[in-house]
Design brief:
Distance between the termini: 33 Å
Low-confidence stretches: 1-5, 17-42, 44-51
Radius of gyration: 18 Å
Bound molecules: nickel (II) ion
Shape: globular
Length: 254
């Protein structure tokens, strides 16, 4: 697809999202369109417990990939649901997964940098920083033909040097179910669903099958509560918050 056509479509989407988010009935828009698949007891569907809040925009973000098996399963699940997410990639895993990276880009997901080999960026000199971030950016640029990438530093570790050398906006998160810990999908889903608020950024890792399963289940439950999933860029555009190079962003609360 031509880049010009893509950015034109993106502008239309962002304008529609901004309009949608401004409407008082926004929380109800998707309700009817999403098939219910909650628990069924004696043939009767049991609705989810009331949410602390309902409706709004959320960004699903995935770190540490791509990993062929799990990232493919996730992309399939997101495509089935028409959900766009944001992927922060490890540079050294890109050469063997270029088709997956192109697929992310072509299917409307946003792509960011998570260093070349998952190195903590704080305290690095210019040369070492470039070997982690600029090297990964160049790999992505060569693979995708554009240079439009966010940065998520490993461990969320940011200092003045990281801000100064980032060369792009820095995106952290507001919901962290620690999916790498017990790898228990039910607990991860509950953590996400119980905490999600309009404007949250959710941190997951697409290198674990359990995280892929949890992400898709959480997305299904939250969509039944009227939430809508967008990329990080779309989330901030909908809130009219400009993303600036070297600045850190954790949420886009209304
Ligand atoms: Ni990471």
């Amino acid at each position: 697809m031509e880049r010009g056509a893509r950015s034109g479509r993106r502008r239309v989407l962002l304008a529609a999202l901004a309009l949608w988010a401004a409407m008082p009935w926004a929380a109800c828009v998707c309700w009817e369109a999403i098939p219910a698949d909650g628990p069924v007891v004696d043939g009767v569907e049991v609705p989810d417990a009331p949410a602390p809040s309902a409706g709004g925009l959320l960004a699903l973000t995935f770190d540490d990939g791509p990993r062929r098996s799990t990232t493919t399963a996730l992309l399939d699940g997101l495509a089935e649901r028409g959900i766009h997410a944001t992927f922060f990639l490890i540079g050294r895993q890109i050469p063997n997964n270029m088709d997956l990276v192109r697929r992310m880009d072509e299917e409307g997901h946003q792509i960011g940098i998570h260093t070349y080999d998952h190195t903590q960026l704080t305290g690095l000199n210019r040369e070492d920083f470039a070997a982690q971030v600029d090297r990964t950016r160049t790999l992505l640029q060569d693979t995708l033909g554009h240079n439009h990438f966010l940065l998520r530093p490993p461990y969320g570790a940011v200092d003045p040097g990281v801000r100064a050398m980032a060369g792009c906006p820095i995106v952290l998160w507001s919901i962290d179910p620690e999916d790498w810990d017990d790898k228990d999908p039910a607990r991860i889903v509950d953590h996400i669903v119980d905490n999600a608020k309009d404007g949250d950024i959710i941190l997951l890792h697409d290198i674990y099958p359990t995280s892929v399963e949890a992400a898709l289940q959480a997305a299904d439950r939250l969509r039944r509560r009227g939430f809508y999933f967008v990329t990080v860029e779309e989330l901030f555009a909908a809130r009219h918050i400009p993303l600036e190079d070297g600045h850190c962003y954790r949420t886009a609360y209304p």
